[in-house]
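tokens incoming
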């Protein structure tokens, strides 16, 4: 009888529990243990030792599911040879491993159900009904906590076995009927049939004619009811198949009638696409030809601009020796010399716009103070100079930035009235960008002329009052550094120039 119940529990684990469990790769130790256990002439102690080693290996690798499976098999091998203390100790270690794992509470409950079932098995062998009942109550709690249907089904089966074993046939029949009804409702006919056959086999081996008769009668009754259910299911499946076939035929007829419409539409569409493709090819060819022409025009314009800049620079250079012979004290001569020099500077900057500009680390505060001191003697009465520059070093071209800021500050000093204010600010915009701001509260620049001030040779000027090349030179220097120079359109208290630089 004892061996029969062990076989029953193992078959239920395989049929109900392990069928839906996630498959994992078995370790080499577990494979060796299974091979030793399946060897009829092999040693039980050797197989048990390998299972325990596999348990310890899985536990060390934080695989509680596989660890529990191996330990349960080793415990069963212990108590088969009446080593109950060793079996209880091993299961205690398994419970500790499960509690220490990072599984969810429901997963822990499913594993604790397996170890508790082994406790029940041992008490069943020892014929300790009270202890068996206690373990069943614990198993029922774990089955509920696990939330797994196969675990709850296994629980019902073990309750039935308990009732039959201890002569409580009525309770056993009730529980077993509940299990068979449940599995039958889920159409798990093969599982129910196997459970009935296992129960009948167990009853035969136990020698209980009452249990055999009850099990067989229940099995026959269930078999008859299932046969009717199967026939009904088959008829329903056939009816459904017929309905599906009729629906499929109707659908195919409908598709066949509309297919010609689709084919005709596709032919029309294909013809339209062919025409569109031809027209598209013509347009594409014309676009390519026009694009080539535009590229050629742009290339010629660039070459012409370079030649123009070189020509202007050459004229300026040729005029300079002659101008040097004139009296430099005359304002007109001085203006012509400055104009010639500015033309050469602007031409050189434009020709070298693609060249890399040299950078050095510049300490901002001394640099800015030097620029402010240069214009102090050019200020009108009571004009306030303000500097907001941090103690910071920035990588930049010192010569270009000094030229730009100096020119902007001189312009601000020129146009700021008495009692006015001029500010020089520095701001870090991001990890790689910064900007200098030169602000004054002078008359400002009209909006329609703000962009023109950066364009050279836009109007005829009296050179003694300025040649208009200062700001174009400053902007070209900013561009050569990879930056920008522009007027702040949001500033309405005078004029604010913003020099943006890459750090």
């Amino acid at each position: 009888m004892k061996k029969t119940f062990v076989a029953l529990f193992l078959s239920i684990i395989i049929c109900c529990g392990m069928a839906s469990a996630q498959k994992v790769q078995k370790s080499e130790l577990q494979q060796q243990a299974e091979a030793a256990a399946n060897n009829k002439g092999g040693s039980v102690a050797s197989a048990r030792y390998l299972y325990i080693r596999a348990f310890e290996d899985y536990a060390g690798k934080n695989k509680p599911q596989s660890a529990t499976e191996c330990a349960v098999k080793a415990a069963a091998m212990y108590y088969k040879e009446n080593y109950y203390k060793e079996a209880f100790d091993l299961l205690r270690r398994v419970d500790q491993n499960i509690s220490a794992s990072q599984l969810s509470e429901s997963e822990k409950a499913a594993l604790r159900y397996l170890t508790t079932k082994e406790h029940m098995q041992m008490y069943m062998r020892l014929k300790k009904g009270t202890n068996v009942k206690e373990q069943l109550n614990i198993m029922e709690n774990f089955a509920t906590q696990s939330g797994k249907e196969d675990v709850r089904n296994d629980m019902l089966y073990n309750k039935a076995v308990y009732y039959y074993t201890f002569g409580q046939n009525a309770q056993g029949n009730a529980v077993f009927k509940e299990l068979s009804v449940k599995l039958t409702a889920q159409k798990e006919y093969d599982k129910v049939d196997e459970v009935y056959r296992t129960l009948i086999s167990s009853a035969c081996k136990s020698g209980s004619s009452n249990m055999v008769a009850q099990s067989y009668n229940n099995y026959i009754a269930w078999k008859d009811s299932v046969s009717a259910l199967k026939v009904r299911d088959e008829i329903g499946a056939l009816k459904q198949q017929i309905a599906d076939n009729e629906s499929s035929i109707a659908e195919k007829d409908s598709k066949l009638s509309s297919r010609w419409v689709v084919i005709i539409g596709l032919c029309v569409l294909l013809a339209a696409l062919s025409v569109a493709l031809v027209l598209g090819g013509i347009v594409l060819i014309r676009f390519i030809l026009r694009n080539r022409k535009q590229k050629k025009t742009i290339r010629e314009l660039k070459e012409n601009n370079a030649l123009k800049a070189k020509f202007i620079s050459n004229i300026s250079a040729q005029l300079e020796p002659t101008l040097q012979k004139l009296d430099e004290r005359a304002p007109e001569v001085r203006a012509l010399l400055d104009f010639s020099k500015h033309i050469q500077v602007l031409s050189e900057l434009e020709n070298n716009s693609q060249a890399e500009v040299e950078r050095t680390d510049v300490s901002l505060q001394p640099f800015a103070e030097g620029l402010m001191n240069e214009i102090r003697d050019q200020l009108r009465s009571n004009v306030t100079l303000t500097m907001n520059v941090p103690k910071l070093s920035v990588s930049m071209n010192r010569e270009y930035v000094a030229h730009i800021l100096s020119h902007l500050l001189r312009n601000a000093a020129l146009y700021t009235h008495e009692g006015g204010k001029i500010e020089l600010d520095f701001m870090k915009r991001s990890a790689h960008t910064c900007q200098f701001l030169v602000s004054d509260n002078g008359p400002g620049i009209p909006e329609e002329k703000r962009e023109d001030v950066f364009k050279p040779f836009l109007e005829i000027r009296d050179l003694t009052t300025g040649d208009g090349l200062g700001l174009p030179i400053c902007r070209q220097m900013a561009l050569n550094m990879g930056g920008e120079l522009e007027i702040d359109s949001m500033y309405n208290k005078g004029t604010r120039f913003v020099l943006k630089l890459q750090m």
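note: Confidence is low (pLDDT under 50) at residues 1-23.
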